[in-house]
Specification:
Three copies of one chain form a homotrimer. Chain A is α+β, with helices and mostly antiparallel strands and 102 residues long. Chain A has a single domain, classed as 2-Layer Sandwich (Alpha-Beta Plaits), CATH 3.30.70. Chain A is 35% helix and 40% strand. The first copy, chain A, contains three helices and five strands, in the order βαββαββα. In chain A, strands 2-3-1-4 form a four-stranded antiparallel sheet, covered by helices on one side. In chain A, β2 and β3 form a beta hairpin. Chains in contact: A-B, A-C, B-C. β4 of chain A pairs antiparallel with β5 of chain C. Chains A, B, C: Keywords: Cytoplasm. Chains A, B, C: Pfam families: CutA1.
Chain lengths: 102, 102, 102
């Protein structure tokens, strides 16, 4: 099952997490605080951001990416998929049920 | 080698991390603070929790899952396995030794 | 594309992140605060550290590991590679460009 790694500005992160759960595109979203270092226009930048780890299913992954692109304030957001090699079975079932009833 | 992603209530997280290291089911556990958004009984909930990233080996993975289920306060805990595609060799050896002497 | 998971002492983490971006070994590094529990010399230890998640490419991965080993204050640092199963295409392109002009 995919965990989707998304970074977002702190101010937009809670609403994005809520949208994904409300629209049943993720069963659960873990939000963590991060300091991001990157290069932009040739300069090293450092920003406070949030990392969102969205727990979803293969079936709705494409719809989740589409929704994140619609809602995200950046033109080029970080959206990455990491497939789990194993998931505790009852938790996997809860995840599948949480996104299934759309 | 597997990294195991576990979420737990803040109050239970440190003890769980310590148990896994003490019982040589993980060489090391990284604990991060998270805000979790999820649906429960039809309502969107938001809770402060901890993410535990347990560094272990394929050999003891099943025993680690069994122990987490025994110690975890939730009936349906989030327990997910992510296999690394590469590990710095001396760190991999330290991990293997740390869980081997059981 | 690889995300590289590195742990480092809090005091060394920002400089390490900046070095990786400055030397075009990573397009972006997310730094998160963590409490690490591990066994050292038979005793359970608990330390405040940082987790660095470096977004890079397969081409420069080996050079990134070499640089982390040179700069890292530990003899046996945690350096782990997790390959993404999918990346939002424009973000993947930005990553590739950010590390390519070396």
């Amino acid at each position: 099952m995919p965990t989707v790694y998304i970074t977002a500005p702190t101010a937009a992160a809670d609403e994005l997490a809520e949208t994904l759960v409300e629209d049943r595109l993720a069963a659960c979203v873990n939000r963590l605080s991060t300091t991001s270092t990157y290069r932009w226009d040739g300069e090293i930048q450092r920003d406070e951001e949030a990392v969102l780890l969205a727990k979803t299913t293969a079936e709705v992954y494409d719809d989740l990416v589409t929704r994140v692109r619609e809602e995200h304030p950046y033109d080029v957001p970080c959206i990455e998929r990491f497939d789990e090699d194993d998931v505790f079975e009852p938790f996997a079932e809860w995840r599948a049920e949480s996104v299934a009833n759309r």
